[in-house]
Design a protein that fits this description.
InterPro entries: Cyt_P450, Cyt_P450_CS, Cyt_P450_E_grp-I, Cyt_P450_sf, Cytochrome_P450_3A. Its cofactor is heme. This protein has 21 helices and eleven strands. By secondary structure, the protein is of the alpha+beta class. It folds into two domains: 184 residues, Uridine Diphospho-n-acetylenolpyruvylglucosamine Reductase, domain 2 (2-Layer Sandwich); 301 residues, Cytochrome P450 (Cytochrome p450), CATH 1.10.630.
Length: 521
């Protein structure tokens, strides 16, 4: 038995409950009553029983591994093996993350209640691990009225009009991306796709957010990209300490411990302080980027604007999180297209029809490309940027017969939800036609959550989609992706940070026959 096998099953249990069939066959909904009884335990009682349940969970994991003969490459499609005579999967589960009791929900009707209908009244806030250092007031961790204030101030930065203005900035960096790939295709080199696509994402984010040119495509060792890569890699030892010993949290906070690397936060703060100092002189105030819109909020008398610290925090997380998620999404797209060349050819046909003779990409044409949208949506289904969503119950509530106690963390395992065979036929297959105009209407909106849903969904969703689609179209105008002997199939996911591959995705580029006409009219 390998440690990897145990982690594999443990990770699966956090997504789908594995219950003995005889417990589900009891009459009168007894299994629901048992779950309610378990979930209604007081925190004190829960902690008293922790060690007993901890060792019981480990025992069950080991026993299950032996029964199923789990192999190292079994995850993620483990649920295919679970539907045996001994076990069955259900869509609501109680579980522990270290010492923290949680409720995992994949039932779409419950998700509608939690994420939308009762979002403001009962589930307004995300989970907060508290050890956030200087990023304690980012919008994703802000709560209640403070979150509403920050969200309302940031929302105008992502309107259609603003995105159209930023589109021209994005195009400058997409051209640099295609140019940087040309010698690689000519020499038939194997490339780490994230190195190029991630650099494009970061350069575009930095220009749209701060109006600075990092040009990490040409300078991959630039400190900006090095710190951006590390910022969301939280400290695993510190995460385990706060999980196993929550009583130490106040001491850890006072001592200045942070899940986010302090050196990375300090670097971005120094960059932003320099940019803000230049703008206070007045010469740069016409730059209507993300940073300037936040600075302007401080001059509005009718609404309480953002403080200097809040501006700093939102500016840092916008670039770091946007770079990581967008760059990884593009890398997964390249991987899926390389594995499915017939899909890539069909997409290139749509691109060539929309922008004949490799004409410059225009905003309206880009957002109206139906098959492009289907391809991106299907890739996001297989590899969502965030593997799970979390909400905290503000009060005890009963949903579909399940009692959720006050302060209970409700987690939505998005990665598992997107691969549920009851919701998605052939869930492991890359089939963009699931999201065609004809089929999209039949998809339950609560079964597809790459950006979340409801009031607390991803604020930069439309911005990110435009940036991703632009890069994909311009690259496919000039090149095709292909797998090679260095391409890992299937991918193994990195258990730390945001969803991404454990090892770099490596592909080959093949230049298309017609020379690029990547010049603006």
């Amino acid at each position: 038995m390998h440690v990897k096998d145990v982690l594999c099953v443990s990770r699966f249990i956090t997504s789908r409950t594995i219950c003995p069939l005889n417990s589900l066959e009891r009459s009168g909904g007894e299994s629901t009553k048992l779950l309610n009884s378990y979930m209604s335990s007081t925190p004190f009682e829960t902690q008293k029983r922790f060690f007993h349940k901890y060792f019981m969970i480990i025992f069950e994991i080991v026993r299950l591994c032996k029964i199923l003969r789990v192999s190292e490459n079994l995850f993620p499609p483990l649920y295919k093996k679970i539907n045996t005579k001994q076990f069955v999967c259900v869509c609501v589960s109680s579980m522990y993350e270290l010492r923290t009791p949680m409720l995992a929900v994949m039932d779409v009707s419950m998700l509608k209640t939690i994420l939308v209908k009762e979002c403001f009244s009962l589930f307004p806030n995300r989970r907060n691990l508290r050890l956030n250092g200087d990023l304690y007031d980012i919008v994703s961790l802000s709560e209640d009225d403070n979150w509403r204030r920050i969200r309302n101030i940031l929302t105008p930065a992502f309107t259609t009009g603003r995105i159209k203005e930023m589109f021209e900035i994005m195009k400058q960096h997409s051209r640099k991306l295609t140019d940087s790939l040309r010698p690689k295709a000519h020499n038939e080199e194997v490339i780490n796709v994230k190195d190029f696509l991630g650099a494009y994402s970061l350069d575009a984010m930095a220009s749209c957010a701060y109006s600075i040119d990092t040009d990490t495509i040409k300078d991959p060792s630039h400190p900006f990209i090095n710190h951006a890569k590390k910022l969301l890699r939280i400290s695993i030892p510190l995460f385990l300490i706060q999980g196993f010993f929550p009583f130490l949290l106040p001491l850890l906070e006072i001592s200045g411990f942070s899940l986010f690397p302090k050196s990375c936060v300090a670097y971005f703060k120094s960059v932003l302080e320099k940019v803000r100092a230049e703008r206070r002189g007045g010469s740069h105030q016409t730059q209507m980027d993300f940073l300037q819109l936040m600075m302007n909020s401080q001059q509005e008398k009718q609404n309480k604007g953002l403080s200097d610290h809040e501006i700093m925090s939102q500016a840092i997380i916008f670039v770091a999180a946007g770079f990581d998620t967008s760059g990884t999404t593009l890398a997964f797209l390249a991987y899926n297209l390389a594995k499915n060349p017939e899909v890539m050819r069909r997409l290139q046909e749509e691109i060539d029809t929309t922008f004949p003779s490799k004409a410059p990409v225009q905003y309206e044409g880009l957002v109206n490309m139906e098959y492009l949208d289907s391809v991106v949506s299907e890739s996001l289904r297989l590899y969502p940027p965030i593997a799970r969503i979390e909400r905290v119950a503000k009060a005890t509530v009963e949903i579909n017969g399940i009692t959720v106690p006050k302060d209970m963390i409700v987690t939505v395992p998005v990665y598992a939800l997107h691969r549920d065979p009851d919701l998605w036929p052939d869930p492991e297959e890359f089939k963009p036609d699931r999201f065609s105009k004809e089929n999209k209407q039949s998809i339950n909106p609560y079964a597809y959550l790459p950006f979340g849903i409801g009031p607390r969904n991803c604020i930069g969703m439309r911005f990110a989609l435009v940036m991703v689609k632009l890069a994909l179209v311009e690259v496919l105008q000039n090149y095709s992706f292909s797998i090679c002997k260095e391409t890992e199939i299937p991918l193994e996911m990195d258990p730390t940070g945001l969803l991404g591959p454990l090892r770099p995705i490596k592909l080959k580029l093949v230049a298309r026959s017609i020379a690029s006409a990547n010049v603006d009219n």
